[in-house]
């Protein structure tokens, strides 16, 4: 199992699937599970409340089906009264629980699947044709993915540094836009948005910050 508290892994996954996604991975049951089963694990109080409501509905249906059998009806009504109290209690307990919805669970699972962090098996019901997706976490490739992201970031930083080195910039005092010299001459050094005169921007500090960030990557090949 991966170390979700590792700053590098945690930061990468947080950008990919957010805090809810990390919570999902932490609490993912062993083996193959459906998205609904995952949702129930992530929202135990709301799951208990739903089960209690379903029990009430089932008992009401049984009372209706019992017809004229007074003995059965009397027992079922007693069970219903108890079930309704339990449902009210479960509903009240679930009020303050932070909910990760089924749609959110599905979105997280498919993002993980696209990045090869889950295994998905589909089952089709022979009678209804309904598809059931069964999921299993597989984070074996996360080190490779993080390395790819590092290289991508490194290349982007190098490109940005080259861009900053090779251009002279003018900016609008109202922060409307930032133009390179050739673009600024085309507008006669006037902001095309607000009409203010453009001013020269000294980007030396920004270039120093880029150099510092690039140096953090060490001897990574370009």
Automatic annotation (TrEMBL):
InterPro entries membership: TF_E_archaea, TFIIE_asu, TFIIEa/SarR/Rpc3_HTH_dom, WH-like_DNA-bd_sf, WH_DNA-bd_sf
Transcription initiation factor IIE subunit alpha N-terminal domain ranges (all copies): 84-212
An annotated Gene Ontology molecular function: DNA binding
Pfam families per UniProt: TFIIE_alpha
SMART domains attached to this UniProt entry: TFIIE
Matches recorded under Gene3D superfamilies: Winged helix-like DNA-binding domain superfamily/Winged helix DNA-binding domain
Coiled coil ranges: 49-100
GO biological process assignments: regulation of DNA-templated transcription; transcription initiation at RNA polymerase II promoter
Keywords carried by this UniProt record: Coiled coil, DNA-binding, Transcription, Transcription regulation
Entry's family note: Belongs to the TFE family.
Its biological purpose: Transcription factor that plays a role in the activation of archaeal genes transcribed by RNA polymerase. Facilitates transcription initiation by enhancing TATA-box recognition by TATA-box-binding protein (Tbp), and transcription factor B (Tfb) and RNA polymerase recruitment. Not absolutely required for transcription in vitro, but particularly important in cases where Tbp or Tfb function is not optimal. It dynamically alters the nucleic acid-binding properties of RNA polymerases by stabilizing the initiation complex and destabilizing elongation complexes.
Self-association state and partner proteins as the record states: Monomer. Interaction with RNA polymerase subunits RpoF and RpoE is necessary for Tfe stimulatory transcription activity. Able to interact with Tbp and RNA polymerase in the absence of DNA promoter. Interacts both with the preinitiation and elongation complexes.
Domain notes: The winged helix domain is involved in binding to DNA in the preinitiation complex.
Protein name as annotated: Transcription factor E
Organism expressing this protein natively: Methanolapillus africanus
């Amino acid at each position: 199992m991966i170390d979700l508290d590792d700053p590098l892994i945690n930061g990468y996954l947080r950008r990919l699937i957010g805090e809810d996604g990390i919570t999902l991975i932490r609490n993912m049951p062993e083996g193959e599970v459906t998205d609904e089963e995952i949702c129930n694990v992530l929202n135990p109080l709301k799951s208990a409340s739903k089960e209690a409501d379903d029990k009430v509905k089932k008992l009401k249906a049984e009372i209706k089906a019992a017809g004229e059998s007074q003995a059965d009806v009397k027992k079922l009504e007693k069970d219903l009264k108890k079930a309704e109290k339990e449902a009210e209690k479960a509903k009240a307990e679930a009020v303050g629980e932070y909910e990760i919805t089924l749609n959110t669970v599905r979105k997280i699972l498919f993002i993980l699947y696209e990045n090869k962090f889950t295994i998905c098996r589909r089952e089709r019901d022979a009678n209804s044709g309904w598809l059931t997706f069964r999921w299993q976490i597989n984070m074996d490739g996360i080190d490779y993915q993080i390395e790819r992201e590092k290289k991508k970031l490194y290349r982007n930083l190098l490109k940005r540094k080259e861009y900053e080195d090779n251009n002279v910039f003018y900016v609008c005092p109202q922060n409307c836009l930032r133009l390179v010299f050739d673009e600024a001459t085309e507008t006669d050094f006037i902001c095309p948005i607000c009409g203010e005169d453009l001013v020269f921007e000294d980007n030396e500090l920004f270039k120093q910050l880029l150099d510092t960030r690039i140096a953090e990557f060490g001897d990574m090949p370009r």
